[in-house]
């Protein structure tokens, strides 16, 4: 572990296991906007979440909800411009990454926080072999020799269960199948043993049988390494299988945060309820699906009050005037709805 | 069999793999669809599921007569569609329409919605007299739940779900009897997906359409389909009613596929037994001998490598399955179980 991380180990919850436990990453009231020719799009409007060691936080949302932009801001790979961080903090072991020097941030990337992208074909460099791209990290960051780095890279490929890892080392990304490329991406992101892994739609481009393999692999590696994982997805099925906690995003805000069992049993926000009602289920036959009417708001022109109010079946005049804050309701769960209590307490 | 609107028999579509630029030589065949038979009855929805590369989309292209089959036939109301030409082919094309997957690339960005939906009338002027076309387009917009006032807008002014509605309106313009939907909702967000699925259902009830519904999402297919065909590497491995496939699957591939679908219910985490398939789908250029699924199948025996299993009803089951060792197995976990 690099010096900077060691010096950070006084963070609360550090135990004797050699690996800091407790709160690893905190996003605190983050605000991001995109300034474009057509106007200012408020993409993130005060997002707060955290992830602890060994825990999986699922960030659930539809396209445009800001789930990926939050992740890009954490990693420091947001395109600026057009993106601008207008407020908030991203703390890693208690230290704000947004105010760090580029050099400090670079050291956290890969070793502290790593990321897996959705589209493995465009995330891997097509002109270098898969093995080279993994080994590169060991050479640059660990100062290993070419042959040692190769050995470690083959070990990594083996760990993510790529058959014939040795032979596959010198293959190019296009010679891998979609599932194997995603495995190679996982190997690459885990190479430097990160404490937090951000997986941005890691299985969306894959078939279901391969998706099951990849999610298993991720779960296994996470348990082994006690990583904190942020799983960004729109798939309510995948979330139900792997998440510990869920944060639901809508129009750049967290609208609900809860333990996975609570969220599915009793959603505390009408948007979550609508999402759960609108998915066709394998174990249920076709009746009319209950849909959420309308469309997500234009982020350049978010409606006043609760951003969900134009689509909400429960909307009252107050919803059009006051933005509901994300408030605690019961233990470990929060909802940004004026009528959260009523929603949870109904039968 | 008078109520079969489409009959597909032993359909084969191979694409040549060539090497060389000047002296092209064929070095193999991609066996995209390799012996597929099924019927589509009037007014029903036939779901076709399978993973990428199993030949679902090639099947849709052959059904649309965009590709000529290498062998086998597709009959529409008794006519072999590959043999039609001239006026007969034009009449056929009116009857079978396609809804495409990607609502972003399938609409010409330079045409207004009115032009896009009205374009079929240019090709088939007999469908609507010139003067009435604009009204027809407005009716269609209303039918698919879009504002008829938006007839002069361009595709980029609409969201993904709205664009898919435009694609559906365009497919409906000529009042077809059959619509082939190739992954119509897979590019859409969950809340929008439900809206489009409800629309497709409503249109079927109102207009008596038959759908061939191609998708990789098994939950979506179950929701919309009356009968379901499961494809693997160019062949149908199991076909039956929606109940037969989802409640009583007998082919190991169907069982594995169903067990891998994540169910949005965390309380089923423990009770769900996932059948793990190892490896990837083999290349359709050189599929395994005998049963194509044998390389990933946990039941595979010597006979599977030697004899391709026929798609037939076997003892102890009520629907055709292409497995030598087909047996029922309950997969879809429910709370009652």
Automatic annotation (TrEMBL), chain B:
One of its GO terms (biological process) is transmembrane transport. InterPro entries: AAA+_ATPase (IPR003593), ABC_transp_ATP-bind (IPR050319), ABC_transporter-like_ATP-bd (IPR003439), ABC_transporter-like_CS (IPR017871), Oligopep_ABC_C (IPR013563), P-loop_NTPase (IPR027417). Keywords: ATP-binding, Nucleotide-binding, Transport. Residues 6-258 form the ABC transporter domain. One of its GO terms (molecular function) is ATP binding. Pfam families: ABC_tran (PF00005), oligo_HPY (PF08352). This is Peptide ABC transporter ATP-binding protein. The keyword Electron transport does not apply. Belongs to the ABC transporter superfamily. Gene3D superfamilies: P-loop containing nucleotide triphosphate hydrolases (3.40.50.300). PROSITE patterns: ABC_TRANSPORTER_1, ABC_TRANSPORTER_2. It comes from the Bacteria. The keyword ATP-binding applies.
């Amino acid at each position: 572990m690099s010096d900077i991380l060691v010096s950070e180990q006084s963070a609360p919850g550090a135990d004797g296991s050699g690996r800091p436990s407790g709160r690893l990453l905190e996003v605190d009231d983050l605000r991001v906007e995109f300034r474009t020719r057509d106007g200012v799009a408020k993409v993130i409007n005060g997002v707060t979440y955290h992830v602890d060691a060994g825990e999986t936080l699922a960030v659930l949302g539809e396209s445009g909800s800001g789930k990926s932009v939050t992740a890009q801001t954490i990693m420091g790979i947001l395109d600026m411009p057009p993106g601008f961080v207008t407020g908030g903090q991203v703390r890693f072991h208690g230290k704000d990454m947004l105010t760090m020097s580029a050099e400090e941030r670079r050291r956290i990337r890969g070793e502290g926080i790593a990321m897996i992208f959705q589209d493995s074909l465009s995330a891997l460099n097509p002109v270098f072999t898969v093995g080279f791209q993994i080994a590169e990290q060991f050479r640059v960051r660990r100062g290993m020799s070419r042959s040692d780095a190769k050995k470690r890279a083959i070990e990594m490929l083996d760990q993510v269960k790529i058959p014939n890892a040795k032979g596959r080392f010198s293959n190019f990304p296009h010679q891998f199948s979609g599932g194997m490329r995603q495995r190679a991406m996982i190997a690459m992101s885990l190479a430097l043993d990160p404490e937090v892994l951000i997986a941005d739609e890691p299985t969306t481009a894959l078939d279901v049988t391969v998706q099951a393999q990849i999610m298993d692999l991720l779960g296994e590696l996470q348990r082994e390494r006690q990583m904190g994982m942020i799983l960004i997805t729109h798939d309510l099925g995948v979330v139900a299988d792997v998440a510990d906690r869920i944060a639901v995003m809508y129009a750049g805000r967290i609208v609900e945060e809860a333990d996975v069992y609570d969220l599915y049993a009793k959603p505390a926000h009408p948007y979550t309820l609508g999402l759960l009602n609108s998915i066709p289920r394998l174990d249920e036959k076709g009746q009319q699906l209950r849909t959420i009417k309308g469309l997500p708001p234009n982020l350049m022109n978010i409606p006043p009050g609760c951003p969900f109010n134009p689509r909400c079946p429960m909307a009252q005049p107050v919803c059009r005037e006051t933005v509901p804050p994300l408030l605690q309701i019961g233990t470990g769960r929060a909802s940004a709805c004026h009528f959260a209590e009523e929603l949870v307490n109904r039968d | 069999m008078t109520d079969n609107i489409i009959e597909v028999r032993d359909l084969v579509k191979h694409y040549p793999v060539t090497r060389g630029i000047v002296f092209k030589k064929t070095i193999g065949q991609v066996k995209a669809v390799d012996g597929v038979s099924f019927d589509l009855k009037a007014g029903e929805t036939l779901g076709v599921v399978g993973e990428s590369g199993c030949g679902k989309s090639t099947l849709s292209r052959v059904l649309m007569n965009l590709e000529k089959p290498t062998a086998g036939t597709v009959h529409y109301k008794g006519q072999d569609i590959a043999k039609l030409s001239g006026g007969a082919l034009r009449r056929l094309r009116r009857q079978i329409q396609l809804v495409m997957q990607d609502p972003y690339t399938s609409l010409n960005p330079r045409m207004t919605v009115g032009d896009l939906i009205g374009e079929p009338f240019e090709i088939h002027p007999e469908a609507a007299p010139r003067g009435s076309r604009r009204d027809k387009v407005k009716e269609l917009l209303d039918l698919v739940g879009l504002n008829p006032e938006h007839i002069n807008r361009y595709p980029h002014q609409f969201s993904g779900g709205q664009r898919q509605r435009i694609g559906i309106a365009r497919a409906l313009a000529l009042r077809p009897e059959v619509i082939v939907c190739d992954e119509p909702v897979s590019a859409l967000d969950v809340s929008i997906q439900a809206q489009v699925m409800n629309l497709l259902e409503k249109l079927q009830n109102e207009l008596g359409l038959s759908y061939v519904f191609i998708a990789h999402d098994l939950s979506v297919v179950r929701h919309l389909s009356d009968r379901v065909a499961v494809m693997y590497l160019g062949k149908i491995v199991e076909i039956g009613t929606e109940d037969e496939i989802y409640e009583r699957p007998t082919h190991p591939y169907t069982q594995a596929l169903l067990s891998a679908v994540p169910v949005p219910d965390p309380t089923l985490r423990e009770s769900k037994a996932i059948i793990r398939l190892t490896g990837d789908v083999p290349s359709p250029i050189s599929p395994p001998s005998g049963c194509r699924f044998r390389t990933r199948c946990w039941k595979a025996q010597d006979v599977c490598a030697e004899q391709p299993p026929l798609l037939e009803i076997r003892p102890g089951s009520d629907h055709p399955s292409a497995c030598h060792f087909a047996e029922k197995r309950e997969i879809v976990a429910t709370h009652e179980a």
